[in-house]
Every structure is written in structure tokens, then in C-alpha cells.
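Progress report, Aim 2. The chain analyzed during this reporting quarter is listed below.
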Amino acid sequence: MLSTLPAIGLALVAAGASSLEPPIQPPTFKVFLLAGQSNMEGQAVVAMDHPEHYNGGRGNLVNTMKDPKFAKRMSHLRDSKGNADGDWTVRDDAFCWYRTDRGELKAGPLSIGFAGYPGSDHFGPELQIGHLLADACNEPVLLIKTAWGGKNLHVDFRPPSAGGEVGPYYTRMLEEYAEGVRDAQRRFPALRGSTPELAGFIWFQGWNDMYVDGGIDAYPDNLVHLAADLRRHFDDPDLPIVVGETGNAGNERFRDQQRIGTERIPPPSAFVATRSFLQKPEDSPNQGHGHHWFGNAASYFLVGDGLGKATIRLLEPGT
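Predicted C-alpha cells for the chain:
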């Protein structure tokens, strides 16, 4: 009988030691909220090349990938890595959830086609953003895209702390974020049983604030209020905020206001200059659509590249 006591004691010690071990944490996935107006919706042309309506395909994605300046840099967009006629890459570690202005839900693994139009003939900044973030993160990545054409920050997205009536698209942005996270956890097997972690907010908007009374003057304040209210809503004072310049706009004063506003957002925050990404209309599919970067694939790829890299820098320790 006494000989069993040491064994019992060892068992109790082992049980006590195991009880001190930290509980196993459930897996997580990173969520990034993308928001803006029509250029966040995505206007880049993939392959359409009608001689009259799409300038013979100049500046579309298919032809841009054949350009020596972009061929290697864009090769990851084809799953054949270098074959310009291969299938479009479909990620298994990055997903996009986007309800278009027309009400269509586009939800699936990241690839081309997550734009405001039906089908897969267009893309937006989310394409390169998603590729970069998926490569940088150890966990799966979910992009929740909330974008509606023709919407300004001054009224449509007006944040609560700016005073006055809260913008309906500020409210809708948060509603669709919550809906998207819930639905994605059910929809995508790779995310089931994992805990979502909002890791960044990416804002690409501004054109319509140039054409609403008071929009330009108030933009810095409105942008600061937007960042503060989002951090408060998500209870995360350190939520990374990335703002993309409306680089296709000729109004330099407005672009300065965007930069000034972003610089006033407490870190972690970043302003991404995009003016240099604007291509010539004669080298683009939609020559008359300067408000949409002429539909140029290189422009939208470079915007996404800049926004994605800025986000990654903010995610690094010590930033």
C-alpha cells in the first residue's frame, strides 16, 4: 500500500505542472478593411481590347504583363510564373469579400475580378495588396472591401466625431465589415475555427471631396476624425491606418490636404503618394476616364503595391 504513494505523488505533481501550462490559443487570421470610392472598387481593365472602346487593349493587364518593365514584377499574377498566357493565380491563403454597389456579393480566394463590375474583366488595388499581405503574414489573410462610386468623406463617409449627421456610408462600411467577417468564417474552410484579427485599415478615396462645398478645406480634419473613430469602434488605438493619395487628380492643393491629414493621424499611419503611377491616356484602355486612372492596369497595380508595402511596414515591430 505504501509503495503506491510515490507514484500517486508523482502523478499529482505532473497534474499540477500540466495545469500551469498556458492554454492552447485558437488559430487566427488577419483581416484588412479596404474602403473608398470608385477607384477602390477597381477600374483596371484585364483583357478587353476593342479598338474603339478599349484603345485596342493598350494598358490592359494582359498587355502590360508583356511589357519588359512589368513582366517580371507582375509574373506572380499568372500561376504559370512567366507565361503571359497562363491562368490567373488564385491564392489559397488570401480571400476577398466584397459586396458591389450593384448588390452582387463577390467572395472567394484572391484573384482578378474583385471589382465593381460583373464578371472578371476588371480589378482594383486589392489584387496586389492581397498578394503582398499574404506573402508577409504567417496567417491566412481576409480582405473586406467596402467601396461605392461617387462618395465623398465630407458627407457620405462622414465620421461621428466630425459632428453633424453621420455619413450613411460610414455606417454601411462598418456593417459590411461585420457581415463580411461572419460570412467569411462560414464560407471559407481555411478560416473556420479561427479568430479574426483586424490588422489594418486602407483608405483610397478623395475625388468627390473636390466637388462638394467645404470638402477640400475640411479633408484633413475629416480624415483625422475617421481614423480616430475607427480605432475607437474597434477598440484598437494602434490600428494601422494607410491612406492613398488621389494621384490621378490634378488638384495639387487637395492632394496636399490628404497628406496633411494623414500626417496628423497618430501612428501607426502612413501616406502613400501615387501621382507618379498615373499613365498617359494614349497608353491606356479608357482614354477619356482620367477620374478612373484611364483604366490602366499598371496604375492600379502600382497603387496596390504602394498601399500593400506601406501596410506591411506598419505591421513590423517597432513601427
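The chain has one domain: 30-315. The CA atoms of residues 42 and 186 lie 26 Å apart. These observations will guide the mutagenesis work planned for the next reporting period.
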